[in-house]
Amino acid sequence: xxxxxxxxxxxxxxxxxxxxxxxxxxxxxxxxxxxxxxxxxxxxxxxxxxxxxxxxxxxxxxxxxxxxxxxxxxxxxxxxxxxxxxxxxxxxxxxxxxxxxxxxxxxxxxxxxxxxxxxxxxxxxxxxxxxxxxxxxxxxxxxxxxxxxxxxxxxxxxxxxxxxxxxxxxxxxxxxxxxxxxxxxxxxxxxxxxxxxxxxxxxxxxxxxxxxxxxxxxxxxxxxxxxxxxxxxxxxxxxxxxxxxxxxxxxxxxxxxxxxxxxxxxxxxxxxxxxxxxxxxxxxxxxxxxxxxxxxxxxxxxxxxxxxxxxxxxxxxxxxxxxxxxxxxxxxxxx
Length: 335
Description:
The chain is α/β, with parallel strands linked by helices.
């Protein structure tokens, strides 16, 4: 699907955070659909729902610092025929209010759209307590839940519009909002449950989502100069997973590297591994992400480099899968 009806352009998106684009997109949806309401737990500015509230103050509900009540109220509104978009930090959604999301929302299969911001390690300097590297594992294990991780602001807008067509609950994670854009324009397809092949290749496939998409594309460019042809798959929907894209990648390249801003346990890598196991496909496979550790504290860009989630780190993992040990370059003269 293509983004339509927006009052901003792809050129504006390069200066807007993903959460800003989310807030603006939601306000545009509300103009044509009176069922759309928004809820937050005293984080309307941090989640960009203040942009929605400026246009529809009577449809923005701030429940205060009470995340369990936030999702309980959202479930009640959904049962009353509304389409609530409930937003808070990812760590507060999936852990502090996990029971309410499971029982009040998913168990009743009501159309609450959970847009969780500051996910992964994007809130770097706020510390480990405010990082969220467990949400894929938690949310994909909850029945009826659709789980989405857009690559950038443009894809966030597309995903917000697409999730309106889903009758049940949706969990969408976006970062703090300072991640660089991945897409140059809106001229591409977005379908929930169908991956996008961003770059074709025959030697190895990187299956990734969120910030990993742009970094994997950059890594693929570097690897191409070394004669390594890498396919990059944007698996923006973690659940339902695009099984056909996984099977095709295994068949065509024989090597799969998953990259995620998440614990390697329970996330995208495990979802891809399950497909390979269930299909009886034996290939070289590696999960790249946080290796079952609590995240360190620091600026997000430094943490991405520390955990090898930047282009350099991803390229090194790909080289190892190709049997090439990366060279440590201590010469900074060319930097």
